[in-house]
Design goal:
- The chain has 155 residues and is of the alpha+beta class.
- It contains four helices and five strands; from the N terminus they run αβαααββββ.
- The protein is globular and about 55 Å long.
- It starts with a helix and ends in a 23-residue tail after the last strand.
Length: 155
Amino acid sequence: MNPRHMAVAALALLALSGCAVEQGSEEAGPKPHSSPADGARRAVDAYLSALNTRSATGLIRTGGVQDAPWSRREAAKILADKGGRGWRVSSLEIDRDMGPDTGSARLSAEDEAGRFMKDTFTVTRDNGRWHLVLFTGQPGRPDRTPASTAAPTTS
């Protein structure tokens, strides 16, 4: 990582530590030293780092999906749209509104040219690691039958 990228990552970490808000169900007792939102914040930071460095591998890791041709194609589309622009966090709110392992993140960022981006993500924790739901084209598993959304027919 070159010094410029390291500086951007350090600035993003500073911004994240001052801007993040965690809401949602709180357990009784003292607040733990490291909250679930910490991992979600790191996932958002990894997302911005992957965008800024144009790293498809970084997006795939942050998305928690398999490194496969479909995910490489989708990462390339994301990077073509948002990559290499020097994004900096302007605000970040993380809510554990769907349980201890699932929530949402609302990100506002500004690029080097002063253009703004707003994104909302679902954040999930799988085996202790937080991911952002970035990829929509994940193929179905061949060992599972997809659920039908069609209404039942009546005679």
